[in-house]
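Give me the fold.
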Amino acid sequence: MNTVSLNHLWSYLQGLSLTASNQRWLGERFIEASTTAKAKPETVGGGQSNTRSQA
């Protein structure tokens, strides 16, 4: 997402009538998603090796 999209998303979220517990829940989901995305190793070329031993 680019900065403009993030700003629009932030404005939208601020406009919602969320309780403190709902805000905390939403924040935890964002944190969880970001840590999960960081933990996934990136693969090059689909991540599968296509090597075979030739006799």
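Helices lie at 3-15, 20-39.
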